[in-house]
């Protein structure tokens, strides 16, 4: 595959208003911001159970296919594969944007490959793509307080204090996605892992 291949940016989340502001839905939030940055609007994808938007990063820059699977988190992989195959996107050009319990709130991390850390959206993607070698933008949500079940925690909304920082952090996560597309995962790590 040439470097001219489009990039498939997968914002992981759950469809429906009741989930819209959940910690588990930061992937959708980042995808929405990226769509507005490239002047694209989300619409229903014909070939997958997903919302999709297309645009270019900068004038004549790389093509981005942004997607929000509509299958619920645990089944995200099938629509990802459908769009990756249709747009001929190699695994090396797939980026998953997701919430991450193992990264403290306020931090955004980039990486390629690795485990899923119990994240069902990533597990579904890895299984459907038959590979773990896609890039990830890990949006830190930290561990639940006290004895709260992680499953309940990820499906709860950000706290009032967190919401004050959320817009800035979603913006930063979108910057990390753009950095991966334009410069690569290592460059993004060097630039954004300082704080």
UniProtKB/TrEMBL annotation:
**Site positions (Stabilizes the basic form of H active site to accept a proton):** 99
Molecular-function GO terms, alphabetical: peptidyl-tRNA hydrolase activity
Q: Where in the cell is it found?
A: Cytoplasm
An example Pfam family from this entry, by short name, is: Pept_tRNA_hydro
Q: What is its EC number?
A: 3.1.1.29
The UniProt keywords, alphabetically, are: Cytoplasm, Hydrolase, RNA-binding, tRNA-binding
Under catalytic activity, the entry for this protein gives: an N-acyl-L-alpha-aminoacyl-tRNA + H2O = an N-acyl-L-amino acid + a tRNA + H(+)
Q: Which residues form the active site?
A: 24
Q: What is its main location?
A: cytoplasm
Q: Which PANTHER family match?
A: PEPTIDYL-TRNA HYDROLASE (PTHR17224:SF1)
Chain's role: Catalyzes the release of premature peptidyl moieties from peptidyl-tRNA molecules trapped in stalled 50S ribosomal subunits, and thus maintains levels of free tRNAs and 50S ribosomes.
* Record text on subunit structure and interactions: Monomer.
Name used for this protein in its record: Peptidyl-tRNA hydrolase
- State the species of origin: Paractinoplanes rhizophilus
Phylogenetic placement of the source organism: Bacteria, Bacillati, Actinomycetota, Actinomycetes, Micromonosporales
């Amino acid at each position: 595959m040439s470097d001219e291949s489009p990039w498939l940016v997968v914002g992981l989340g759950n469809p429906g208003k009741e989930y819209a502001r959940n910690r588990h839905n930061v992937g959708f939030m980042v995808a929405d911001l990226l769509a507005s940055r490239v002047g694209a609007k989300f619409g229903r994808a014909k070939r997958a159970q997903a919302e999709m938007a297309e645009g270019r990063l900068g004038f004549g820059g790389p093509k981005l296919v942004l997607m929000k699977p509509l299958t619920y988190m645990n089944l995200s992989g099938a629509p990802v594969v459908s769009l990756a195959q249709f747009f001929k996107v190699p695994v090396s050009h797939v980026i998953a944007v997701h919430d991450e319990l193992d990264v403290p709130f306020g931090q955004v991390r980039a990486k390629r490959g690795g485990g899923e850390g119990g994240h069902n959206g990533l597990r579904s993607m890895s299984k459907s793509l038959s590979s773990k070698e896609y890039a990830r933008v890990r949006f830190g949500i930290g561990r639940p307080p006290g004895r709260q079940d992680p499953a309940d925690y990820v499906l709860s909304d950000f706290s009032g204090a967190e919401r004050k920082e959320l817009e800035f952090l979603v913006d930063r996560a979108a910057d990390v996605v753009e950095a991966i597309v334009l410069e690569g995962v290592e460059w993004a790590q060097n630039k954004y892992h300082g704080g």
